From TrEMBL:
Protein name stated in the entry: Probable GTP-binding protein EngB
Domain EngB-type G: 22-197
Cofactor(s) named in the record: Mg(2+)
Database matches in HAMAP family: GTPase_EngB
Family: Belongs to the TRAFAC class TrmE-Era-EngA-EngB-Septin-like GTPase superfamily. EngB GTPase family.
UniProt cross-references to SUPFAM superfamilies, sorted A to Z: P-loop containing nucleoside triphosphate hydrolases
InterPro entries, sorted: G_ENGB_dom, GTP-bd, GTP-bd_ribosome_bio_YsxC, P-loop_NTPase
Length: 207
């Protein structure tokens, strides 16, 4: 997929305030400091489309971007904030949960996981919740440039083994590096193929 345009649309503090759900939408989510904004910027060939920060938890609203004028890329708040109050954390979790469960044009949720770490309980629980809730999702491993190739392969296989304990069929898996701009084209290819399918089958998101 060639990215011709990528424009910020709006930030929303409630899922009800998101843009009209009339075109396909693909959302990105992960723990704080997983490299979500960097990956989005790399995929869109922009340096500052999604705001990056040295402080985890910068994204605290639902941020919508219109790509090629025909689909939304959504940057969601992270889960598992370490440096916010329990009340704030619950507010973020409620915002995320309500968006994911109620956004009818959400075609796929990309769950970002830091490939440098062994399978984390919070990531596994979130993935399990997506599956139980019937949410279409893919797993995106980030920061592959921080490890040697063998280390990346081992950690991905460890993660797959952990998932196989409760999943028979695994979701799509992508290995990415925002630094080296690797893996983003595969994600965009998936989005393009899915959008073509929706168009050819006249899928409508209207209620």
């Amino acid at each position: 997929m060639v990215i011709k345009t990528a424009d910020f649309v709006k930030s929303s503090g409630r899922w009800q305030d998101c843009p009209e759900p009339n075109i396909p939408e693909y959302a990105f989510i992960g723990r704080s400091n997983v490299g979500k904004s960097s990956l989005i910027n790399a995929m869109m060939n922009r340096k500052d489309l999604a705001k990056t920060s040295q402080t985890p938890g910068k994204t605290q609203l639902i941020n919508h971007f219109l790509v090629n004028e025909n689909w939304y890329l959504t940057d969601l708040p992270g889960y598992g904030y370490a440096k916010v109050s329990k009340v704030q954390r619950k507010d973020f979790e409620k915002l995320i949960t309500n968006y994911i469960l109620n956004r009818r044009n959400l075609v796929n949720l990309f769950v970002l996981v830091d490939v440098r770490h062994t399978p984390q309980k919070i990531d596994l629980e979130f993935v399990q919740w997506c599956g139980e809730s019937g949410i279409p999702f893919s797993i995106v491993f980030t920061k592959a440039d921080k490890l040697k190739p063998n280390g990346v392969l081992k950690n991905v296989e460890d993660y797959k083994a952990e998932l196989h304990k409760t999943w028979e069929d695994l979701p799509e898996l992508y290995v990415t590096s925002a630094e080296k701009k690797e893996g983003g084209d595969e994600i965009l290819g998936f989005i393009e193929k899915t959008n073509d399918f929706l168009t050819h089958n006249n899928v409508s998101f209207d209620e």
